[in-house]
Amino acid sequence: MAFNELFAGEIVTELLRQLNEITRKSCFCKSSAENLIRSVQELLPVIEELKCSGIDRPAFRQSQLNHFSETLRGGLELARTVLDSGRWNVYKNLQLVRKMEKLEKQVERFISGPMQAHFLADVQHMRIQTMERFNRLEERLDSMNAGPGTSGRQVIEVEEDSNLGIFGGIGLELGKNKVKKMLIQRDDLSVVGIWGIGGSGKTTLANEIRRDNQVRSYFNNRILFLTVSQSPDLEQLRANIWGFITGNEAMSTNHNFLPQGKSQFEWGSGPQTLVVLDDVWSLPVIEQLIFKVPTYKTLVVSRCRFPKRVVNEVYEVELLREDESMSLFCHSAFGQKSIPPTGNATLVKQIVNECKGLPLALKVIGASLQYQPEMYWINARKRLSRGEPICESHESKLLDRMAIGVECLKKKVKECFLDLGSFPEDKKIPLDVLVNMWVQIHNIDKEEAFAILMELSDKNLLTLVKDARAGEMFCSYYEICVTQHDVLRDLAIHLSNQGDVNDRKRLLMPRRDTELPREWEKNIDQPFNAQIVSVHTGEMREMDWFRMEFPKAEVLILNFSADEYFLPPFIDNMPKLRALIIINHGTTEATLLNFSVFTILANLQSLWLEKVTVPRLSNATVPLRNLQKLSMVLCKVSNSLDPSVLDLPQIFPRLSELVIDYCDDLIKLPLSICMVNSLQSMSITNCHRLRELPADLGMLKKLQILRLYACPELKMLPPDIGELVGLKYLDISQCVNLKCLPREIGKLTSLEKIDMRDCLQIMSLPTPAVLLNLKSLQRVICDEEAFDQWRVLEKAVPDLHVQVAEKWYSLDWLNG
């Protein structure tokens, strides 16, 4: 009997009539009859919808419905038997009660599960049919409109993200093979991830994998592709997934029907199943969409990196190589894989280079330039170099889509992302610079700043270039750098440049230029309300600057490439300036002119100088009363640190952190540094000519961190180091000529960590009796030669852990 025939007849009506009779006449089965009446009445509206849908159902679905019709027919016979049963036949009535209860459960189970699934499947089928009709109608209308009066140009629309990325398999096979191995050859991986920047072709790769014949064969064509999005209907997604795993085409939205926890394993070893979850944005969402079934695997596609306990292994999508980028761009711009003979090859290469291998950018920008004259292309190149959209299509299809990942960030995290547009393209950003800037303007501490950095990294909005020690307690932020794809940087600039130039929170020069932007000069009659000001030029003389007022500026970033640089006079119109960053990207140290402008920086708290010759410091020229952090990297400092004229406590009375890194003319520190009583952290690193430390180093009673990393000419530590009663961290790693640790080191009762890797000349340590005084020591990093000597101490100091250092070398600094 067909399902519609069942409900077109009188079975349901007759069943309800018989059940009503039972409630009046049978005391044994009254409760079950009442429950069945409610269930059947609840069933009637859904039945009516199914009758009216007019859909031809597959055989297996029709079989399910026919089976249920037989259940109801059996229920009708059971109801008649109950009514015919004598009241005094107790044993028979008890048997009938059990049968009625069983029937009740069968009906309830069908209503809460398969029935609603059938209804949803019919709705989905009808929706698809409707969409197909609309598509056919749209095609007919398009063909009707494509008459003689239309333009002869072909319009190339950029596809959705599922088809973005790699054209014709270029660069795709390597990634596809890696993910296939994770899915097919690794039984220990139940959840695999595809991770990459927005627009890098993640969804394209996932679609290629699900279409792959080998993958389809392994999973017996049981592959479900779902788009999760930022605001998913989790219950519906869970229902769809569970229905797919268990063999149903769809599943109820009733959350209580879905198994929880260990009960998921009760399904045992069914057929191999793959579910692809595309566009996943958060950890709580993915945790709810993963079921623990032995033969079930999940492929997660996301811009965000998830922990290994959730996503077992991840493939990071690589950007396109130069030849691949050119092929994809030319396909979008010219309809072929190479530059046509009539094309301007130099101009095309310049524009392709601006895309930095990002598939979405190559497709969008290529399609936007199709059929455009050469002057339009030249203007596009200029706009791209300034981080500006070349047209409305570029803005909506690239920048706006990339912005989706930014708009969902918490407000403070989003602000930190936008700050990244303040730094030059294709340059590594010292993390120390970022952290200091965020601390100064966002009212956060260093720990929160580092957490924000990790969140941006996990969401693929920046790349963390770290050494082996990054993230450890007492690690140095200036040893870690941040990079960012140019399209993401352009996005940060694009979002920051909304509104009137005088009212922007960030006043930025997107690219290096020979002069300040004309837009700034046109608006100098009004104050600029920017909190961050970033300038990127070549050599600047006094006449190259014009007067500007910055009443709210807290951060000034000066990037330049020159041998000589005149500091901007408008610094004296920055009364709230708290952080000043001066970075020379030239080949030699630059001479700074107009250094006297520092005398008015009463609120300056952080100063970063890179690849400059630091002028002579004196109390008369630079009294930075509130400066807390001074960093000099790749600088010439011998003149500025002249002991005969330098009185550091007078110049920097509140200095708490001093960094001197890669300053190869530093031979010894000035004695007056020992009188800077506020100093808490001192890092003298990679100073290859440093020979000695001040004898009175122990006067720095507040010093907690002392880094002397990679100072090969340093041969001894002063005995007075034992007077550093507050010292918690000592780093003497790669001091290859350091002969020994002084006996006085045993006085450092607050010391928690020592890093002495690659100290090859230290053959013996102070006696165990001396080292036993290091009651606070928790971690020692050393070479194998010193390992056994420190291990003796482990038994006596309960929390001590001695670790042999891994060999690790980096030449990243050579790349700037």
TrEMBL record:
Q: Which PROSITE patterns match?
A: RPW8 (PS51153)
- Keyword tRNA processing in the entry? The reply is no
Keyword annotations of the record: ATP-binding, Leucine-rich repeat, Nucleotide-binding, Plant defense, Repeat
- Extract the GO molecular function terms from the UniProt entry: ADP binding; ATP binding
Q: Which Gene3D superfamilies match?
A: Helical domain of apoptotic protease-activating factors (1.10.8.430), P-loop containing nucleotide triphosphate hydrolases (3.40.50.300), Ribonuclease Inhibitor (3.80.10.10), Winged helix-like DNA-binding domain superfamily/Winged helix DNA-binding domain (1.10.10.10)
Q: Which GO terms describe its biological process?
A: defense response
Q: Which InterPro entries match?
A: Apaf_helical, LRR_dom_sf, NB-ARC, P-loop_NTPase, Powdery_mildew-R_dom, WH-like_DNA-bd_sf
Task: Cite a single Pfam family from the UniProt record.
Answer: RPW8
What sections of the protein cross the membrane?
none
Superkingdom assignment: Eukaryota
Q: Does the keyword Repeat apply?
A: yes
RPW8 domain span = 1-149
Family per similarity comment: Belongs to the disease resistance NB-LRR family.
Protein name (database record)? Disease resistance protein
